[in-house]
Amino acid sequence: MLNKVAIVILNWNGKRLLEKYLPTVVKYSPEYNVVVADNGSTDDSVEFVQTHFKTVQIIRLDKNYGFTGGYNRALQQIDAEYFVLLNDDVRVTKGWINPVIKLMERDTSIAVCQPKLLSDANPKKFEYAGAAGGYIDYLGYPFCAGRIFEHVETDTGQYDSAREIFWATGAAMFVRSKVFNELGGLDEEFFAHMEEIDFCWRAKNAGYKVMYCPDSVVYHLGGGTLNKVSPRKTFLNFRNNLLLLYKNLPEKQLKKVLRKRKYLDLLAAIVFRITSSKGEYQAVLQARKEFAAMKDKFTSKRNPAVTSYPDGVYRKSLVLSSKIFHKNSFKQIENNIG
């Protein structure tokens, strides 16, 4: 029997987080199917779920396939009209599912939607990973309503209207299963980071909408698998951002954007070397090296029918706007999002 909604939590050695956050998911999602998809954990997190949460379905994968491969393999085993990809460090609230589903039911062209994402560590603040919905600038730098680079806004109700966005956070992403399957799921070459932006970009190119629903609120801890600052995370973010651009940019923009990004990435590496650690500096250089090695594989993934950016792209440089002109509030730049 096809379930209406399946809430799928991807776990990898996350017993500590499951102990803290799974109880709210079970409590506030009683009418829906809650699934823990285990990415080959070596701790006793699966045994913990089996012992304490009898109603939670468990899917055991044989190894760690990353965010992308783990979800792809788990969702193939689940029958539901809507999937909710939910991080294991998200605290949900009463009634968090229905507003999103009602919004998506009213418009069948909505393929993806996210709730308002606040910080579990500082509940008055938006959370870095998704805030009030994601966007990118024309050079591929992602940001959110409520968060530009490291600047995170306080939630004062300024983003309490539902609206179309460019990308929805993978920390709490609602997606129609039909569209997820139609688009081939998440791109496993990304492994983790930026994969949700790639999926949303492909969905928009296919004529679907990506939405933000402020009537649903969740609280995200963030950094549950990788620390917010780590060479591994820096590597994945830089490499995957380049792959994202190479895969999805319109042909007429491709060379120009990648040329500018080369200089900006080298500048970022120098800044890391001066202000941070040698590891971060090397991660950026390694990301560019691996991107160059993977380009040929990604050429076949480009869609020749795409001739322009979809809606939701900031038409100026976010680096210049933020770092030079100190525009670090979404309200200061949203008029240039088209």
**CATH hierarchy: architecture of the largest domain:** Alpha-Beta Complex
Q: Output the radius of gyration.
A: 19 Å
The percent of residues in helical segments reads 25-40%
The assigned structural class equals alpha/beta
Query: Which stretches are poorly predicted, pLDDT < 50 over at least 5 residues?
Result: none
SS field, number of helical segments: 11
Order of helices and strands: EHEHEHEEHEEEEEEEHHEHHHEHH
Number of strands: 14
Q: Please summarize the sheet with the most strands.
A: 9 strands, mixed
* Proportion in β-strands: 15-25%
Query: How many separate structural domains?
Result: 2
Overall shape: it is globular
Q: Distance between the terminal alpha carbons, to the nearest Å?
A: 42 Å
Can you walk through the features of this model?
By secondary structure, the protein is of the alpha/beta class. The chain has two domains: 218 residues, Spore Coat Polysaccharide Biosynthesis Protein SpsA, Chain A, CATH 3.90.550.10; 78 residues, no CATH class. Helices cover 39% and strands 22% of the residues. The chain has eleven helices and 14 strands. Strands 1, 2, 3, 4, 5, 6, 11, 12 and 13 form a nine-stranded mixed β-sheet that branches. The chain has a three-stranded mixed β-sheet with strand order 8-7-14, with no helix packed on it. Strands 9-10 form a two-stranded antiparallel ribbon. β9 and β10 form a beta hairpin. α1 packs parallel to α2, α6 packs parallel to α7 and α7 packs antiparallel against α8. The longest helix is centred in the last third of the chain and has 25 residues. The protein starts with a strand and ends in a 5-residue tail after the last helix. 45% of the residues are buried. The mean pLDDT is 95.
